[in-house]
Structures are given as C-alpha cells and as structure tokens.
Design a protein that fits this description.
The chain is α+β, with helices and mostly antiparallel strands. The chain has helices at 2-9, 18-22, 26-39, 46-54, 80-89, 97-105, 126-131, 179-189, 254-263, 317-324, 360-385, 398-406, 411-414; strands at residues 165-173, 205-212, 231-233, 242-244, 282-289, 295-305, 329-336, 347-354, 426-429, 432-435, 440-445, 448-454, 461-464, 470-475, 483-495, 498-514. Helix 5 (80-89) packs antiparallel against helix 9 (254-263) and helix 11 (360-385) packs across helix 12 (398-406).
Amino acid sequence: KVYVDAQRKAGVDVRPPYHWWREGRKDDYEKRLPEIRKEFPKIENAPLLYWERHGHELPYKLVDKDGKPIDDLPVVYISWRDANAFAASIGMRMPTEFELTRAMRGDGTHTWPWGAAGGDQDKFTQKALELLQMAKTSDLHAKPVGTVPAAAGPFGHQDLFGQVWQLVGDVGYEPLHGVDFFLKQWKLLMKHKTGRLVERKPTFSAARAIAKGGSFLSYQEPIQLLIDARAPVQTSDVLEALGLRLAKSMQPGYDFLYSLQRVKFNRGVFARGQQLDLGKLVGGEHYTLAENGFPSAYDAVAFTPTNWLSDDKRMRWKKLGELSQEQPVLIGALATTAELVDGPKAGLYAVYYRAAGISKGLRTAIKAGYKEIKAARKAAAKAKKNGKEPKQGKPKDSKWRKLTTRAGLTDDDLAEAKASTGDVGFVRIDGIEIPTDRGAYLLAKNGKMVGVIRGTNKKPATGDDKFESQLALAAGSKEHDGKTVAEFQFAVPLTAHSKKKTVVFHLQAVLDLKFTGNWRK
C-alpha cells in the first residue's frame, strides 16, 4: 500500500492488487459492471481483464468483501513484473529459486517440509495438512502472516508452505539439473509401471517465471507442497493464491539494479553471448525508515558492466575507440533513484561509450557540406537580391550528406563557421547532442538514446583483470551546489575471448540529490 500510494502520488501508473479494488471497493466495482460488460462482452473473467487494462485508474481499499481489514494477509494478485518493480522501490529483490529452496530445506536432504527427521517422517500424511491448517473447507483461504507455525522453515522464515505460492526472481522454467540429466531420469521413470502413469513430459519454457511453496488450494494436490515442487507462471499472471517474498543482498545497490533489469532492460541491445556482469556491480544506497520499520525513503545508485566489449578476439582498444565514434559501444547499465543533473529521470539505463573526436570520413564530409551549403546559400541570397528565384537543384555530392545525416547534423549545423574545420563540436544520436571534444557516456532506454554524461579527464585505458570496481560518493563542487556526485571506476574485458585484458572506465554521474554522509557502498 505504501508503494502504490507513493507511485500514484508521483504520477506513475500502477495497479493495486485486483481484490483491493473488487472487494475493497465493491461499490466502485458494481458501479462499473455495465461498462465492464460492454468492454468485454460474454467473457467470464471480464472484471479481471478490465482491471488489467484500467487498474492504474481504479480506487482501492484494504478490506475484504465483508469490510474486514486484510492488511495482515499476504499480498496476492500481483504479477512477477509488478513484484520486481515493488522490490526495486525499496532496494530489494525476490529470492532465487535456490535461495528459497535452501530456506525451505536447510542443510537436510528431505523432500517434504516436515521430513527433516528422515525415515518414516519424510512422507505425506493427512496430519501434515492439519498442521498446515489446510485440512478443512473452512481453512481454504490465506491466513494472517506468521500464524501457521508448521509452515516455518529451519532458519525461521514464516509461511513457506501452504499459504500462497511465492514468486522467485529467476525466469526460465527449465530442468533443475539440466536437460540431459532430466531425459535420463525420464527414461528410467518410463520403465516403472507407476511412472508410466505420467503421460507427458513437463512443458519447459525459458520465458516462464517460477513459484514455490504451494498454497491453501494445494489440499487438492498435496504434491505441490514438496520442497522441490515448482509452478511455472507467465510473468504477467495475477492469481488469487500467488504472492511474493523479498530477499536482501549484502552488496549495496545490487538488489535495486537486479530487480529493475529483470523487467525494464532492453535485452535486444546485447550481442550474442553478451550480458550484464552482476558479479562486478558496484553501488551505494541509503534508507530512511518510518516508525514501523518500513522504508519511508530509499536512495540508490548502481552500475554494472557488461561481460565484454567486442566479440572480435583481435580487437584493440584504440581501434574500438575509433569505431565507437560511429557506433558507440555498450559498456553496462546504470540505475538511480534520483534524477541526473542535466540528464534523464530516475530509472535504469543502458550505458554506451563514445570516444572523443570524429572519424576521418565524417570530418571530410562536414568540410564538403560546409563548402556546398555556404555556396548554395550565398547564391540564393544573391538571386533574391536581384529579384530572381533561387535555383532548386539536387546537392552536387550526396556522399557527404549521407554521413552528416547519419551523425544527426543539419544544414544549419554545417553552415556554421566552425564546420569549415570539419568538426562542429558535436554529433547527434536520437536528437541528443553528444560532444566530440571529449569522451561521452550515453544513456539509452528502450533502444533510444535519452541522455549524455560528459567524460572526465581520465580517459578509458587498457588494464588487467585484477582491477576491482570502485565507487566514490561525495558532495559536488559549487558548480553542482552540493549535489551527490557518484564516481564509478570499473573494468570491462576487451573481448569475449579473454578476461585478462580489460578497459578501465571512469564514469561520473551527478545526482539531483543533496549529499549526505550516511550512504552504504
């Protein structure tokens, strides 16, 4: 509720869980029924579809259909995507499948939640359903958090089993121990007369999210309570018995960026085999807690590099730098809760690097364009002075125009006196001006450049694999009026074929946030 209220106050479209509207604001739901039927005629789950489309506009209240408070119940009717966005807002994430499995099992090898003692204890019994408070029809609903002692794990985590299914951070419903091992075990299973009752293999999917722990509905299929049981779900699914659990890493800023990149990063920007190297992430964060212990404010900034820059094993940094003048090179991702000074808003951005200078071909094209445009404009001015219509014709040389257009330069840019030198001082990508007098870090979202951070005097240089990522946080100079300056230093392997030779970058981001000295990094 704190998250939904804050997002709406900030003007961000966010849907509250479905039942917060349908049951919590039954009056509004019933008033909208004619509109719902009109928009989704003869569809059984029309209200849910209506909520999926208009949920960000709907009112809500945390009560059930009888008007009783539900703020002590697990959050349900939340998608994997929305769960990640919520987790990121307070610098957390959902656990990995292996983390959640360990929380459920501990250091044992048992298969059922209650089977830690082994032997005859590690099997299903009706008594187990009674202990989990899911044996009676009257029990078939979510219970207040922490009120089912038998659902706790060996490390004290509450509600691990039979409450609501819990989403994990992983995406990819694949065999736990790999496809080859699974097929081998499947072959053995099919030789067993009971095993042959399983008619079809599971349908694995790299696009499915995973939930664990079963729910209050698992009384119908108790096998869902097995520690290794897992349910594949669409990342957009919202279900009555599907919720989430949060996890926190020791690395400041890690969970914030991790959760955002699960749902808000354009993976189409990667080359084959290229990805973010989260193990090299460096970040800082600061919490302000309310009286009840929940974060009332969360500030964070984090950067993670890619796992390599080029897939050409013969590439050298000097050459790649020259190539970046035409095609900026992807180097990582930057996440921030604060708007960047002279930059885009808070969020997650792909970061590219463009080296200082311009290519020889573009310099020649700018000079040619300057001469032709100046001559054409001079001739047009003379014709106008003599009362004649200026001649309309095609450019004498289209080659220079192709290059200057690709660099985002207009005829007015090329008519400037400085264009005579072959460098107007900038190029444009997606309308964003990028200085050419020094290196620049370009910020992109959804495949489009949206901002630029000027490079520092420390130019990227080759290094080795022993360099460790660093972050320095400090108050900016008078120029930045004490704003928070985050200075990242990080190394990225030059090629996909060797981790030994790296390129060390220096990225300085100025946050529109007054600096305080209590950041963790």
